[in-house]
Design a protein that fits this description.
Elements: H1 3-10, E1 17-21, E2 24-28, E3 34-37, H2 39-42, H3 44-53, E4 59-61, H4 74-94, E5 99-103, H5 110-122, E6 128-132, E7 134-135, E8 139-140, H6 147-156, E9 160-163, H7 170-173, H8 178-197, H9 200-203, E10 209-210, H10 212-215, H11 218-229, H12 243-247, E11 250-253, H13 259-269, E12 274-275, H14 285-293, H15 299-314
Parallel strand pairs: 4-5, 5-6, 6-9, 9-10, 10-11, 11-12
Antiparallel strand pairs: 1-2, 2-3, 7-8
Helix pairs in contact: 1-4, 4-5, 5-6
Length: 316
């Protein structure tokens, strides 16, 4: 998290905000969405040390939860996004050979949001736009108001990177740490599926989408989605093909947390649509390295997953 973004959130009394928690911070996106922010999320030197330890040459960085879109006042949301994006750009500028950045949006007003996307691409040199599964923790990504943003990304060839965050199911996830354990995967899956079923991917054939965490649960359910969407009116009203046709355009990362889950992602999506990621510092890098090394991939597929897929997808 950039220092400037942390400072801006620490000065807020409303959501989103940061509050002191011992030597670190606690991030509050909503009353239910609370996450500890330790030094590894705030100190770039720790990330560089971890990258060096695991021979990671280049990392793609972004802000984490909470996003600027959670601010209730549109102008505040847009300003927080600018602060966050400038902070990511500053970090990249200090280590241009080690980092590339993803931009983010406040979604306060669409025209300023579109201008911020263009600034992220043209001025800050970002290689992707990260958005949370529900804008402001409430609005799905297929909301027609967001159409100009997807059109802009498609036209510029810049990927849309989905990320979990606060959602309408937040109160249900509040107990037992259910959000990070499973709720995030459901929210990501629904976000991607809504982009498919709404016709967003059909209307914007150039829109590239990254659905993280091994494709969440969509690789497991895409066959069910195809079958059940095809035998009743409604699900396919906005698309010309089966949902799996559009799923073939979606990429993912290898943060699957188990051998079987990663094998499923590779089986359903192929090495050309799966890329290494670490989810650090939430999970030790070596955990995902070990799982990926145990896949027994061919030399060609191994090159794709470790670096080639990401290079092609993000234009690195």
């Amino acid at each position: 998290m950039p220092d400037t973004y942390v400072k801006a959130l620490a000065e807020r009394s409303d959501y989103p905000r940061f509050e002191r928690d011992g030597d670190g911070w606690q991030a509050l996106g909503t009353p239910e969405a609370k996450l500890p922010m330790g030094a590894a999320l705030l100190d770039l030197s720790i990330k560089l040390e971890e990258m060096d330890a695991h021979q990671i040459d280049l990392a793609l960085i972004s802000i984490n939860i909470p996003g600027p879109d959670l601010a209730a006042e549109p102008s505040e949301a847009d300003e927080l996004a600018r602060i966050a994006n400038d902070g990511i750009a500053e970090a990249v500028s200090r280590h241009p050979d080690r980092f590339r950045g993803f931009g983010g949006l406040g979604f306060g007003d669409i025209d300023p949001s579109c201008r911020e996307v263009e600034r992220c691409i043209d001025d800050l040199g970002f290689v992707g736009l990260q958005v949370f599964a529900y804008v402001g923790g409430k609005r799905p990504l297929d909301d027609p108001a967001f159409e100009p943003i997807w059109e802009l990304l498609a036209g510029r060839g810049v990927p849309l990177v989905l990320h979990p965050g606060p959602s309408p199911s937040g109160p249900v996830y509040a107990d037992y740490w259910l959000g990070p354990m499973v709720g995030f995967m459901f929210d990501e899956t629904l976000a991607a599926l809504r982009l498919i079923l709404s016709g967003t991917l059909e209307r914007h054939p150039g829109l590239k989408v990254l659905l993280p965490h091994g494709g969440a649960v969509l690789p497991l359910l895409i066959g069910r989605v195809d079958r059940l969407s095809g035998n009743r009116p409604g699900p396919r009203d906005h698309i010309s093909h089966a949902p799996s046709h559009y799923f073939e355009r979606i990429h993912t990362d290898a943060v699957a947390h188990s051998d079987s889950a990663l094998r499923l992602a590779l089986q359903e999506m192929g090495a050309g649509r799966v890329m290494f990621a670490s989810d650090a510092p939430w999970v030790p890098v070596e955990a995902h390295v070990k799982i990926l090394e145990g896949m027994g991939l061919s030399a060609e597929d191994s090159e794709k997953v470790w670096s080639g897929t990401a290079k092609a997808f993000f234009g690195l």
